[in-house]
Amino acid sequence: MLLQPKVLPFHVERNKLGSPCFTCTDSVSGELWQHVKVSAGRALLGLLVGGGLGLFLGLLNGSSKVASNLLDTTLQMIRNIPALALIPLVILWFGIDESAKLFLVAVGVFFPIYINTYHGIRSVDPQLIEMGKSYGLSRWQLYKDIILPGAMPSILVGLRFSLGLVWVLLIVAETISAQSGIGYMTMNAREFLQTDIVLVGILLYALLGKLADVFAQFLEKYLLRWHAGYQK
Length: 232
Known about the structure:
232 residues; mainly alpha; MetI-like fold; 9 helices; membrane; MetI-like; ABC transmembrane type-1 domain-containing protein; transmembrane helix; MetI-like_sf
């Protein structure tokens, strides 16, 4: 649909507006896939940082009562702070560059993995641990052969939840002065009432979320192939 002169804001020059054929040219030029690659990179990096830290602290606090008493209460307090409420503070700390976006995504994906890892470690059957000790297993062998496999179903639930949540967080993160990414593309299209591009952005988030969930299911079946619930 072509924009008529009477609907243009007085302070906007017509040659500054996007083309009505934006969707077609965007796809042909490869700019759409560039936005997808940027968003996927941010999501992956945030997941690696936040998920890795969540896994480490979940294993630590789940295995050590001392560490749990020192850290868990503080982490639970931080967990109750909404990601949106952190945006002003994040901008003050990190400015408006990539660090701010990475921080928001990492904080959001940290807690599902941390909580499920912590719960998984604490839920391992103590009798299995005692049986392992009676067979003379070292502490590392106990951890590797009994505790980690026992906690793995819960850890993978946290990972699957985080893989879905990361795209929701990315929408928020990419509103912080982004110059690329699906969120930037969608917000920019909204400003010019380009509904088709907004719908493309929404569908891309849904598709990427679905692909992430399929990957999580594959990972569950592979890592838990010994589990009765995942055997055909």
